Amino acid sequence: xxxxxxxxxxxxxxxxxxxxxxxxxxxxxxxxxxxxxxxxxxxxxxxxxxxxxxxxxxxxxxxxxxxxxxxxxxxxxxxxxxxxxxxxxxxxxxxxxxxxxxxxxxxxxxxxxxxxxxxxxxxxxxxxxxxxxxxxxxxxxxxxxxxxxxxxxxxxxxxxxxxxxxxxxxxxxxxxxxxxxxxxxxxxxxxxxxxxxxxxxxxxxxxxxxxxxxxxxxxxxxxxxxxxxxxxxxxxxxxxxxxxxx
Length: 246
Known about the structure:
Layout lengths: L1 H13 L7 E2 L15 H14 L3 E4 L2 E2 L8 H17 L5 E4 L2 E3 L2 H9 L9 E5 L9 H10 L3 E5 L5 H4 L3 H8 L3 E5 L9 H12 L5 E3 L5 H10 L3 H4 L13
Parallel strand pairs: 1-2, 2-4, 3-5, 5-6, 6-7, 7-8, 8-9
């Protein structure tokens, strides 16, 4: 009897929590960035994510001019092929597409042209250099908000210049920036410093969204483990997670 109870608790701990049925950060379109490298791999990743319990995946290929200079048309064409294959294989999951924009001059230009791929309620996902602070970030947040966008900073725990001075996080939040935590950061997938920063963000109630940031199969395998992490399981104690509103 005791062993059955323990097994049931273990299963519950590894299940997808109710607040995380929608994933807003992944790289599932094949051969468009450093994510999936084939249609077969993309389909396997989607099947795995569905088996975990996701009902909707918003895939967000990189728009990064110095590495992955994707245009909106490139992304939409790739997504159409992926969606067609998902339908052909009768995989019952909802797919949407946006982009993970890299903070550079091209991103600023797209903001001013209002030519960004959005999701949810006009949300925008963007990232920055992990090691070099972004110039003019506060002004850019202001421009995004003024243009009617709702900016989300991808994986804030991974930027060394923030994690070393965590009081900077509060200032960015005060400016209107939303934060998306990578689930795998809570279990040390990206190293000890991002894990420490993730705990700080969670404990201070600064997280708005969580994401898998799935690139390849190893990310999904790590995700299955991270979902049972105590830090992640208790995230709603101090944070209001908005994934399911997207």
